[in-house]
Amino acid sequence: MRQKLSLKARALRYLAGREYSRPELLRKLGPYAESEDELESVLNWLLKCGYLSDQRFADSLVHRMQNRYGNQRILYELTQHDLDPDLLAECRTSLSESESERAIYLLQRKFASQEVTPELKAKMYRYLAQRGFSSNLVQRAIKNWIAENHPE
């Protein structure tokens, strides 16, 4: 027979798998809490002990997404977790430093052996735009990728 997990044990089990933001963990633990006070005390204990950290959560999410998505998409995901505006600004700054390289990397990985045609350029544009890269950056990345990989 399985023993019922305490709210604290359940929270630690979730956090052992990956980082969570406070609002996200609040939603996950809500159905198991007997009262709001119990839930708040567990979340405060997790913060006090260093098990729950919005900074670590943001770093983890950025790390997970940065090799596949652009700044717009990553920042959108971060805003869905009610993080501190200063933390969002810090993430925006660190992401903008590498966005161009990430876009070129994605183009190289996806389109490395293909011949450059107008259709391919359109496909590349859509590919990066759907992943949250801005239109100006997409245009520059495609131009730079073609210059690096298909010199004339």
UniProtKB/TrEMBL annotation:
Keyword Cell membrane carried by entry: no
Entry keywords, A to Z: Cytoplasm
PANTHER family listed in its UniProt record: REGULATORY PROTEIN RECX FAMILY PROTEIN
Pfam families: RecX_HTH2, RecX_HTH3
Biological source species: Undibacterium squillarum
Family indicated by similarity: Belongs to the RecX family.
Record's protein name: Regulatory protein RecX
Summary of the function given for this chain in its UniProt record: Modulates RecA activity.
